[in-house]
Design goal:
- The protein has about 500 residues and is α+β, with helices and mostly antiparallel strands.
- About 45% of the residues lie in helices and about 25% in strands.
- It contains twelve helices and 14 strands.
- Strands 5-6-7-8-3-12-13-14 form an eight-stranded antiparallel sheet, sandwiched between helices.
- α4 (about 90-100) runs parallel beside α6, α6 (about 140-175) packs antiparallel against α7 (about 185-215) and α10 runs antiparallel to α11.
Length: about 500
């Protein structure tokens, strides 16, 4: 499936790159709940042939390989709503109203924020529009829907022209109404303008690619309209060049580098402030002190006892003292190990505080745990999901696997303003499997077979793959305060060179 289609989907695991997969989850706060609880659990079944276990892959390895992003979901607008001059939720309308106010630091920050939010909204809107048209192009009933597709293309062209006209007016208003030291604000405007053109350019070309794959129907007029749309945006994208093939590598590097900078600049309007901490160090110090105290008490009591039994400085006294010291040391280490295992069942490996971008409001926490799970302790529901839809009957037999367990528990204590533009939370989870494949065999291996007619031996290079199965279990309260549990299964098809594809097992 194409990347720009995948970007819209939440709840499904997708390939980020050849080493990473990504999952985007949406958390919708309930308007009548003071606290919202979400639980997300991953059961990752890894073939034993990859040699991933508690001895070779530590908790520290896991948390180094995973990445969490927590941000607000981009508010959903279509271009009609965005261009509507009476829509007080539209950033275009809000910026116009702000520019009518006094030029001060507070109002400037509001305008800068609305500009960045506008960039995110336009990217999401053009992506939705192109996705809608792509689905029409890919459908089997395209012959009956060509006129509908033409209307969609005409509408998006009309709405984009209205948007560009309105957006250009903002630049004039900034220079006219806030003429004193407007240079910084104009830079914000130009960066967002470039980001918007880049987004329209990218998604339009993606759609054009799908359009040209339908060679069975004459779509030349639509093709021409999309090309004009792309070319009109091209001149506003400063990091693109007419002929990429003639560029030296240094110039080519700049294309993605600048696009990444613009993306981070605009996304700043949605990012939440997070502070991640591990309670390990405090708990370990406390447990260590407790274990040392108990062991010392044991040693001191027995030391006093043996002083009454053996003559001080005698050979028996010295040997007993040494034995007692060894016992004390073993008791201390044993108590520490047992206490760690017991304590960490009640404490998360990492705790992340989630705050508003200005750090002024505490929104909630994300608690995370990881460990290798004993197959005997896996619930019946997860085992049933693991055993669903094998490729072959032979897979139904007992398979030697390691099971990684990762749990996220999210508590949102500030649900924000439900009718505002920002209250839905996006939790983006990325995981790198590079370490999983260090023991994998070569991606292609020699295979010999005999030709039935000529009796010649034929040689072929066949792919060698591994299946990493992921069961994801989500739990949350619905609007009627009833606990809902969802289970999804995904299969990563991997080889020595990384992830080949992801299969969603329905």
């Amino acid at each position: 499936m194409d990347k720009f289609i995948r970007e819209l989907e939440s709840g499904d695991i997708h390939i980020r790159d050849k080493w990473q997969f990504e999952l985007k989850s949406e958390l919708f706060p309930l308007p009548d709940s003071k606290k919202n609880f979400y639980t997300q659990e991953f059961f990752i079944f890894i073939p034993s042939s990859l040699r991933i276990n508690s001895e070779t892959y530590s908790k520290e390895d896991f948390f180094r390989d995973q990445t969490n992003f927590i941000r607000y979901k981009t508010p959903v607008f279509n271009f009609s709503e965005l261009n509507d001059k009476t829509n007080t939720r539209s950033p275009l309308v809000r910026i116009r109203k702000l520019l009518d106010l006094k030029d001060c630091d507070k109002n400037r920050k509001e305008v800068e924020y609305e500009l960045k939010l506008l960039g995110n909204i336009v990217r999401s809107s053009i992506r939705l529009s192109m996705l809608s048209m792509t689905k029409v192009v890919q459908s089997d009933e395209l012959k009956d829907s060509v006129e509908q597709l033409r209307k969609k293309v005409d509408l998006i062209q009309k709405e984009l022209k209205e948007f560009h006209d309105s957006f250009k007016e903002l630049e004039k208003s900034i220079k006219l109404k806030w003429s004193d030291d407007s240079e910084s604000l104009i830079r914000h405007y130009l960066y967002v303008d470039e980001f918007i053109s880049n987004s329209i350019y990218y998604y339009s070309i993606e759609f054009l690619k799908f359009l040209r794959e339908r060679k069975d129907i004459d779509l030349d007029d639509i093709d021409e309209k999309i090309c004009r749309m792309i070319i009109s945006e091209f001149h506003n994208v400063k990091f693109l060049f007419p002929n990429m093939d003639t560029l030296v590598d240094e110039k080519k590097e700049f294309i993605f580098y600048r696009a990444g900078l613009l993306n981070k600049f605009v996304l700043d309007a949605l990012l939440l402030y997070t502070s991640r901490k591990s309670p390990d160090s405090k708990i370990k110090h406390f447990i260590g002190s407790f274990a040392a105290g108990i062991a010392m008490l044991f040693y001191f009591v027995l030391f006093l006892w043996q002083g009454q039994v053996f003559l001080i400085n005698s050979q028996a006294f010295i040997l007993t003292t040494i034995v007692l010291y060894i016992l004390k040391d073993r008791i201390k280490e044993g108590l520490k190990t047992f206490s760690y295992e017991f304590a960490f069942k009640w404490f998360p490996d990492f705790k992340t505080e989630i705050r508003s971008p200005d750090q002024g409001r505490y929104l909630g926490t994300l608690n995370e745990n990881f460990f290798f799970l004993d197959p005997k302790k896996v619930s019946k529901e997860i085992i049933e999901a693991r055993n669903k839809q094998y490729h072959e009957t032979i897979e139904d037999f007992q398979r030697p696997e390691s099971i990684l367990y990762h749990k996220k528990a999210i508590i949102m204590e500030d649900r924000g303003d439900i009718i505002s533009r920002r209250h839905v939370i996006n939790l983006i989870f990325r995981f790198n499997i590079f370490k999983f494949l260090s023991k994998a065999d070569d991606s292609y291996q020699l295979y010999m077979n005999l030709d039935e007619v000529t009796h010649k031996i034929r040689f072929s290079n066949l792919p060698k793959v591994y299946h990493i199965n992921i069961i994801m279990q989500n739990s949350f309260l619905d609007s009627e305060n009833v606990r809902v549990t969802e289970i999804n299964k995904f299969r990563l098809i991997v080889d020595k060179d990384g992830i080949k594809r992801v299969e969603h097992v329905k």
